[in-house]
Amino acid sequence: MHHPPDIEALLRDLRQRFGPRRALWVFGYASLIWRPEFDAEECRPARVQGWHRALRMRSHINRGTPERPGLVFALLSGGACRGEVHRLPTGNAEAELHRLWSREMPTGVYTPRWLPCHTPTGMVPALAFTLSRRHQACLAPLDDVAMLDVLRHARGRYGTTLDYLLQTAEALRTRGIRDREIERLVALAGRHRLLPPTEAS
């Protein structure tokens, strides 16, 4: 059984690899962009190589239920991904990291990694929450019929999968980040009249 590292182990790894005074950065690629729930002293656009954003992680609570699972984005191996890096406040970084850990890792579904993130002012190692393709929560790519069924019906404690997709699409659009698959999925939802009036107009 896979046991992800705890916060203390991650911080030891960061400081051993990059130095004791290295700032703590977090890479956001979906909801961590538009709902970070932690204080950041700095944000930069960033790109990671070797990983990509994919709407393939099953959600039984936040965006769906066990009876009708929803989907959320995950960072899967392969390709590249543009998003944002957030620098946690120097004097309170570890406390903010604990808050983030409580949000992202209650079930240990992710594999947290320090990934090199390329920003306009240089590379920073940032904590990223990745998903193993072998994890049971990682679904094979859905065809459009199956995806539309999820977008029509999946709803969890934080709302629908469709809302989550649209919020992520809007956050990327306002930051000038192109994600062709997200744009395709939004267009698919539009063709099938799933979009709210403000999105469809």
From TrEMBL:
Swiss-Prot/TrEMBL keywords: Lyase, Transferase
Pfam families from the UniProt entry: ChaC
UniProt key word Transferase: yes
Enzyme class: lyase
Domain of life from the UniProt record: Bacteria
The enzyme's E.C. designation: 4.3.2.7
Annotated GO MF terms: glutathione specific gamma-glutamylcyclotransferase activity; transferase activity
One annotated Gene Ontology cellular component of this protein: cytoplasm
InterPro entries in UniProt: ChaC (IPR006840), GGCT-like (IPR013024), GGCT-like_sf (IPR036568)
GO BP terms, alphabetized: glutathione catabolic process
UniProt name for this protein: glutathione-specific gamma-glutamylcyclotransferase
